[in-house]
Amino acid sequence: MCGIAGYLANHGCLPDRSLLRPMCDRLRHRGPDGYGEFFDDQVALGHRRLSIIDVDGGAQPMGNEDGSIQVVFNGEIYNYLELREDLSKKGHCFATRSDTEVLVHLYEEVGERLPEYLNGMFALAIWDSRRQELFLARDRFGKKPLYYSSSVPGTRFCFASELKALAGMPQFKGTVSPRSVADFLSLSYIPDPNSIYEDVFKLPPGHSMTVSNPGSRACKYWEPTFATDRIMDFEDAVDGIRTLAADAVRRRMVSDVPLGAFLSGGVDSSAAVAFMANQTTERIKTFSIGFTNKEFDELPYARMVAERYRTDHREEIVSLSIHEMLDTLVEQFDEPFGDSSAIPTLYLARMTRQHVTVALSGDGADELFGGYRRYFYGVLEEQIRQRFPEWFRRSVFRIGGRYYPKFDYLPQVFRAKTLLTNLAHQIGDAYFTSMTAFRDDALAAVLAPDLRRQMDTYSPRTSYRERFAAVRHLPPLAQMQAVDLQTYLPGDILVKADRATMAYSLETRSPWLDYRLGELACRLPAGYKLHGRTGKFAFKKAVEPEVPRQVMIRRKMGFAVPLAEWFRTSLKPVFKETVLRPGMERYLSLREARRLYDQHQSGVRDQSRNLWNLLLLSCWEGHHHQRDSQWTAQACTARR
After folding, report:
1. What is the DSSP letter of 283?
2. Which residues does the annotation mark as catalytic?
C-alpha cells in the first residue's frame, strides 16, 4: 500500500522538480517507508512506499529494461505470481520479486488492456515515453483512490492518491462545487466521479484513462453484469462461493510483513478469520474494539470466533470521544465525509497498526450478496407498489406520506411516514429517500440562497434517478445493488476503510471484494440472496460451517456511535462554534441550521444525522481555509 502522485508539464516546459516532493510528502502516512521519483522532459512521477511485498527490492517508480516504461502503483496484485510465470515464458526478465514489476512487463504485452488481467486492489499510473502517453487505472470496485485534474496551474494534467496532494499545489484554485455540497448533505459523501472541488475528479471504479498530447480518453474496462443464471443450482452456488472465498482469502494472506484481521463479531469478518485459520498452522492475529456503552459493543461475539480458532486476539475498550478523533477525521478525508462509523474505524485501525502492517476485513459482502435490511424493504415496497395503480400511489400515498407524523422516537411499527412516501414514488426515488439525510425541500431550506442559485436546476435526487433509469431493466434487488456499487460502496464504505486505515499506515485487504466473487454474486437469482427476511442467504450458507451459530443468527449491528446523545452533550458547543458562525453563510442558511439544532435539543425529532453532516461540512470548511493558508505560506518560504 502506498501513495502515488505525479503530473505532466505544460507543453514546451520541463517539469518543475520542486512540485513533486511536497505532493508526495502530503501522502507520507500512506507510505512512511520510502520515497522515489522519476522525471523526464514531460512527466514527473512520485511514490511514497509502505513496504509489504519484496521489502528490499520493490522500490518505485519502477521501469522496464530500457526505462521507456515507468510505473507508480498503490495497492496489491493478488494474481501476480501467475502473471509473472506467464510473462517469463514469453521472454520477460524480472529483477525483483515485487508485484509492481509484473505491471511493467504486462503493459508491454497488452497495453491499455492491462487492468483486465489484474485481480487486486490498485490505482496506478504508467508513463510510456515511446507513445508519449500517461495511462491511469483504478481497480474494479474502487478500493484504491485516484484523483486527477487538468486545471491546476503549472501542469497540463496531475493526479494523486489523495486530494490533499493536489490541493497543496501552488496556485490551486480550490473552487468548491455547489453540486458536491448538495450531494454531501444528502448522501453524507460525494459520489464518483466528482470531488468537493469543481475541477478535480475521481477516476471511477473499473475505469482507465489515457492522457496524451491530443487530450485524454477514458475507458470503462469492467462493470458488474447482473445477468441472472436461472439454471444455477443453489448448492452449486453455495459451493462456488465457498471455493472462491477460500481462494480469495488465501491470496490475500501473502505478505512479507506481519498480517492479521479485523474481527467485529459479525458474519463477514468472522468468516474471513475462519478461512484464514483454515489455511495456516500459525495463530491468526485478530483485533477488536469494544465500547464502554454496551449498546454498541460486539466484543462477546468476536470472542466466540477468537476462541473457536484460537487466534492471537487483542481487544481495546474505548470510550468514544468525538473530540479525540474529529480533527483526524477532517484531516484524513480531505473532503466532507459524514459516515460516523469512520470514528470507531479510526480507533480500530490505530490499535491494529501497533501489531501488524496488513489486516483483512469483511467489507463488500453486504453489497454483493444482499445483506442490508434496506434491500429487503426495497423489494417489499416494490411488491406493494405493483398492487396499486400509479394514480392511486401518487395521490393517496403521497398525501399520506406528507401528513403522517414523523415519530422518530417511537417503535418502528409506528413510523409509516417513510413507507407511505416511498410507495408514492418509483423504486429509484424511494431508495434515494431511504438512503439520504437532507433531501428535496429540506435540502433547499438548509442551503444558502446564493449556493442554490449556483446549482441552477441540479438536484441530488435527479442524479440518483438517472442512475436507476440506466438499470431499470433489472429486478428490484439488482437495481439497488447496481446503484450501490456505483455510489455507496466506492463513495462511502471503501473511502472510510482506505482513509481510516492509511491514516495509521495500515493496509487493509477485502477478500469478499475479489472480482470473481463479485461476478458470481451478480449472477445469483434474487432468492439466493434474499430468502424471506434473511439477507446474504447463499453467502451465509457457504460460511455457515465455519462461523459460530450465535454469530450467524444475531441481528446485524453497524459500527454505530451515539450521535443523538453527543449533540445534546459534548457536541453542543462544537456545533454552535463551528456551524453557527458567519463564515458558513456562504454555504448554509444559519437560521435553518439553528432550527434543526433546537428541534433536536427539544427531543421532538432526532436530527442527529443532519446535524452531523452540517458539522462535518463546517469543520471541513474551516480546515480547508486554514490548510490553504499554511501551504501558501510554505510555498512562499520555499521560493525565497
Report:
1. P
2. 2
